[in-house]
Design brief:
The protein has 155 residues and is mostly helical. The protein is built from seven helices and no strands. The radius of gyration is 20 Å and the shape is elongated.
Length: 155
């Protein structure tokens, strides 16, 4: 989107004038970069925001929240997404969005890990010749599990 790109460029000019030291501008830049799909740059900007907000726990909580959200929705690092969202809830327990994203991140992580473990067990059962039968049932379960893991989390 052209408007998002223009706003991002404006923030980058502002940050250039301030030697990249403006926590709120870094936070907003990270959010915008994530929206236009520049995930690695968004993560870097949000990490800078966290460092620069060190004296402002509410601002730092916002930066942790958005970093966790970006890591989750991009699928880049679900475990760290949980950790970042958890930090946001500790730093600002009143930040309702942090609780929402923490719940989503935990749910997604548990579902993916459980599905992966179940899939491995069922594939091992098949590799051992499916001695109890039920090959069709196992194949259906594997298909269902695959369809639940494939979609990504949407912001």
């Amino acid at each position: 989107d052209a408007t998002l790109m223009a706003t991002t460029q404006h923030l980058e000019r502002l940050l250039g004038q301030r030697n990249s030291v403006d926590a709120e501008a870094q936070l907003q830049r990270g959010i915008l970069l994530a929206q236009i799909g520049k995930i690695d740059e968004a993560v870097a900007a949000l990490q800078l925001a966290i460092q620069q907000f060190s004296a402002d726990s509410r601002g730092e909580a916002q930066a942790h929240l958005h970093l966790g959200r970006v890591l989750l929705t991009s699928g880049q690092d679900r475990e760290r997404a949980v950790s970042e969202c958890r930090l946001a809830t500790v730093q600002d327990p009143e930040l309702a969005a942090a609780w929402f994203w923490l719940g989503r991140a935990i749910t997604d992580l548990v579902q993916r890990e459980s599905t992966a473990e179940a899939s491995t067990a069922l594939r091992e059962y098949l590799a051992r010749g499916a001695p109890l039968g039920r090959r069709d049932e196992v194949m259906k379960l594997l298909t269902v599990m695959q369809s639940k893991v494939t979609p990504s989390v949407q912001a």
